[in-house]
Structures are given as C-alpha cells and as structure tokens.
TrEMBL record:
Keyword Zinc among record annotations: no
Gene3D superfamilies named in the record: Intergrase catalytic core
Organism: marine sediment metagenome
GO molecular function terms attached to this record: DNA binding
The protein, known as: Tyr recombinase domain-containing protein
Length: 115
C-alpha cells in the first residue's frame, strides 16, 4: 500500500502484480485498518488477529462461517459466485463501481474484525 501515491499493489493469477488506485472514499477505511492491525513484517494488507497473512484457505473458512450464520450454507454460494454477481450488476448499471469498491472494503474490514 502506497498512501503517498494512493495506490495499492495486487498480485493476481500468474503472480502478476498490478497497481490499483486507492479511491478517496476508501482511503480512511484503509488507513484505519492499517493502524488497527498488528504490526507485520510482510506486505499483505489483510491479516488475521495475530498478524499472519490472510490466505485463501482462511478466506474460504470465513466465508463458509458467514454463510452458516446467515443460514445460507446449502444454497451453493461461493466467493466466485459473489464476484460474478457483483460484476453482473455493475455491467447492468445497477451499481456505481466506486460505491461497490468502498462497500466491499467495509465488509472485509468487518469480517476481519471477527477473526
């Protein structure tokens, strides 16, 4: 995360790194999270309570537990289905992309606070 340039680096498929802008609405939440999380010796933004990187397996466990709490565990939802649904709604013009970006981070921060 580069708060001076308002960019964050994301590593995607194929280990390809790309820079994403940090939107002005998102910035205060990101700053708050970075200040609240444990001190770490790695570049991962999202961590467990103990400061370890939040890997895919932990995200899946968190997602499954949230589905269970919402009594939706048998509906066949996956993290990818959420991504697909959000992309479809954005494509159809139902959401402003910037609002979706900020809401997603708020949700992630709330989920991480429960870890």
């Amino acid at each position: 995360v580069d708060l001076v340039r308002d960019e964050m680096s994301v590593v995607g498929k194929g280990n390809i790194r790309r820079a994403l802008p940090i939107l002005s609405d998102l910035r205060p939440y990101l700053v708050r999270w970075l200040a609240a999380r444990p001190e770490v010796d790695h570049d991962y933004v999202f961590t467990t309570r103990t400061g370890h990187p939040l890997y895919q397996k932990a995200c899946w466990r968190l997602f499954r537990s949230l589905l269970k709490r919402a009594r939706l565990e048998h509906k066949g939802y996956t993290v990818h289905s959420l991504r697909h649904g959000a992309a479809t709604q954005m494509y159809e013009g139902l959401y402003n992309l910037q609002n979706v970006y900020v809401k997603r981070l708020r949700i992630i921060v709330k989920m991480l606070e429960t870890l």
